[in-house]
Design a protein that fits this description.
This protein has 229 residues and is an alpha+beta fold. Helix content is 31%, strand content 22%. It has one domain: 3-Layer(aba) Sandwich (NADH Oxidase). The protein has helices at 30-46, 101-111, 115-146, 168-175, 225-228; strands at residues 2-5, 50-61, 64-69, 72-77, 90-97, 150-151, 183-184, 190-191, 195-203.
């Protein structure tokens, strides 16, 4: 298992999601922009951005997809939304996180009824995650190219159709997430909140030369880093 400590460029954060396309004028007030600048600086000091990942050779046996991670072998039922990963030579299992400090700061603003600050800091966090996803996409594509492989669609638990959050403990187990203070709560959600897990197949059986999500898209489709960067 590898851990990459990623860097975030505060000057390149994208805040297009702060308002609907026809409603951006509301965000042009001096007060909001000043607070956005201040909170961006705060966020930069709070986050601990990291990518945890394991590149697992895989095989299929008795309806299960086997993942070989060092000396350990893990398996999942192919029918649990994993059929498109069966042609893979290897599967990249990953987790991207901002750490927990920024989440606690947002909760603090909420408890103090500073709702605008809470909202802006949340949007800053989402933009930061977008940067980390873009860096992760590049890393995976570079890896695939060095092996003359193509890639599957990105499989995201809870977003990809048929791939439920129930595999989160599996991902955390493979990545030894507890060593970075990452856990799964009773709802199978990753904590810290600003974290995302994913699986990507790489191999000669795929035809994709770029990385896109398998999910149908959501309200953030125009700003989704998996979809657009």
């Amino acid at each position: 298992m590898a851990v990459e400590n990623l860097e975030i460029s505060l000057s390149e954060l994208n805040f297009d999601t702060l308002a609907k396309d026809g409603d951006k004028s509301k965000l042009n007030s001096e007060v909001v922009n000043q607070q956005l600048d201040e909170l961006t600086s705060v966020a930069g000091k709070l986050v601990d951005p990291a990518l945890l990942y394991e590149i697992c050779p895989v095989s299929v046996k008795d309806g299960r997809l086997l993942f070989y991670a060092g000396d350990e072998i893990y398996s999942l039922d192919i029918n649990d939304g994993l059929s498109e990963l069966t042609p893979a030579r290897e599967v990249v299992i990953g987790l991207i996180t901002l750490g927990s400090a920024i989440e606690w700061e947002i909760r603090k603003y909420n408890s103090e009824n500073q709702l605008l600050a809470s909202y802006l800091l949340s949007e800053i966090s989402i933009s930061m995650m977008g940067q980390l996803i873009a860096k992760t996409k590049k890393m995976i594509m570079d890896l695939a190219r060095t092996k003359d492989f193509c890639v599957s669609l990105v499989h995201i638990p809870g977003s990809t159709p048929g791939l439920s959050l129930s595999i989160q403990p599996f991902i955390l187990n493979v990545l030894k997430g507890e060593n970075k203070g990452i856990t799964v709560n009773q709802h199978m959600m990753i904590e810290p909140f600003y974290s995302v897990t994913f699986l990507v197949g790489i191999g000669t059986a795929y035809n994709n030369h770029d990385l896109y999500p398998k999910c149908p898209g959501c309200s953030r489709a125009k700003s989704c880093a998996w979809r657009n960067l």
